[in-house]
Write a structure and sequence with these properties.
It is globular and about 55 Å long. By secondary structure, it is α/β, with parallel strands linked by helices. The chain has a single domain, classed as 3-Layer(aba) Sandwich (Rossmann fold), CATH 3.40.50.1010. Strand 6 (149-152) and strand 7 form a beta hairpin. Helix 1 (8-15) packs across helix 2 (22-33), helix 3 packs antiparallel against helix 4 (62-72) and helix 5 crosses helix 6 (97-108). The longest helix is centred in the N-terminal third of the chain and has 12 residues, at 22-33. It contains 7 helices and 7 strands; from the N terminus they run E-H-H-E-H-H-E-H-H-E-E-H-E-E. Strands 3-2-1-4-5 form a 5-stranded parallel β-sheet. Strands 6-7 form a two-stranded antiparallel sheet.
C-alpha cells in the first residue's frame, strides 16, 4: 500500500473548492476513498482546517465545518503528533516549523510521498508532489494509471 501524506493546502483546495486546485485535490481524495492508497494528516492540521473553514472561528459556520471534516476523515488517516515528532521537527533544517512538523509526521507514518503545493516542504528525505504530479509519479514509479470516470446519458466516459 502506498502511503501519501497530504499537506493542509491540498485539503483546503478540496474542502473550499478552490478554483483551479479543486479537481486535482478531489481526484486525490476520490481514489483514496476507494482504497487505492492511504492518505495521512496530523491532528494539528484538522484544527487548522476547522479554523479556516469557519472563517477564523465564526460559530455560524461550525456545523458546516464539522460535517466537512467528518466526511474528510472517512478518506484520510490521522496520525497523532507527539514528543518524537515535535523534537524531530525542531531539529529539522526546514525553517517553517509547521512544515517541519508535517515532514516529521510523514516520516512517522512511513510516507512514500508528501502531496503539497508548498515548495518549502521539499526536503530530500521524502519526495514531494503536487496532486497532479502525484498521479504521474504513481504511474512512473508503480505502473498505476488513474482516470476519473463520469456517467453521461447512462454511459460511463472518461472525465476531462
Amino acid at each position: 500500500m502506498i502511503h501519501a501524506y497530504v499537506d493542509t493546502n491540498v485539503l483546503l483546495d478540496f474542502l473550499a473548492e478552490r478554483d483551479r486546485f479543486y479537481k486535482p485535490a478531489r481526484k486525490l481524495l476520490t481514489f483514496a476513498y476507494q482504497g487505492v492508497y492511504d492518505l495521512w494528516v496530523n491532528a494539528s492540521q484538522s484544527a487548522d482546517l476547522f479554523y479556516t473553514l469557519t472563517n477564523r472561528g465564526k460559530p455560524r459556520l461550525f456545523e458546516k465545518a464539522r460535517r466537512a471534516l467528518a466526511n474528510l476523515f472517512k478518506q484520510v488517516h490521522i496520525v497523532s503528533m507527539g514528543e518524537q515528532e515535535a523534537f524531530r521537527a525542531l531539529a529539522s533544517d526546514i525553517e517553517d516549523y509547521e512544515d517541519a512538523l508535517i515532514l516529521s509526521c510523514a516520516m512517522s507514518v512511513g510516507a512514500d510521498v508528501i502531496v503539497t503545493r508548498d515548495k518549502g516542504l521539499e526536503n530530500g528525505l521524502i519526495p514531494t508532489r503536487t496532486p497532479e504530479e502525484f498521479f504521474s509519479w504513481l504511474e512512473e514509479k508503480h505502473g498505476v494509471t488513474f482516470t476519473e470516470m463520469r456517467r453521461v446519458d447512462g454511459t460511463w466516459t472518461r472525465a476531462l
